[in-house]
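Re: beginner question about structure tokens

> Can someone show what the tokenized structure looks like for a real chain? I only ever see the sequence side.

Sure, here's an example I had lying around. Input first:
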Amino acid sequence: MKERMIIGIAGGSGSGKTTLARNIVEHFGDRISILRHDDYYKSQKDIPAEERPNLNYDHPDAFDTDLLIKHLDELRAGRSVKSPVYDYSVHDRSDKTRLVESTDVIILEGILIFADAELLKRLNMKIYVDTDADVRILRRIIRDVKKRGRTLDSVVTQYLSTVKPMHEAFVEPSKKHADIIIPEGGKNPVAYGMIIGKIDSYLNEI
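And the corresponding structure tokens:
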């Protein structure tokens, strides 16, 4: 059997990574599965709930990347995995897991996946979604307030204290590892069409 295709989609918070990944999955259906780096945040169960919002969730050390790599290797070997599920409302992993099947193509999506050398080794295609900072912060505000139960003040404080500096320190520099850089993410039809064509070619060769 031909080796599974692992596609990494990175970019800043609010850049459009999730939209791009979702569009690809919807196009190809059950021939593609997805892992989300966010689901691999380290457990914070030992930290009081009122202290969790103040932690830095945008540094590589916030993630259990070792577990993510283990799961990615399992999927590459043809075995399904049970991914953790992160609950943004409590700033911690939930008690649930999500079954991820080993499909022909696997998407790995997250802000810092290109900042880890071991993850980079496992990616066959690396896509960076490059979106202006003002657009990203506006999208983040709308998303976190409407969907994650955050206050406007908390979103702005987190952005200025950790999201922006960590983006400049880790996310933006990781762009150099990308094979494809897409302005405007899921709203760039030309780039999206090229990616769909590449995946189509791979699937037709299997």
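Each token stands for a local structural state, so reading them left to right follows the chain. The longest strand covers residues 92-100.
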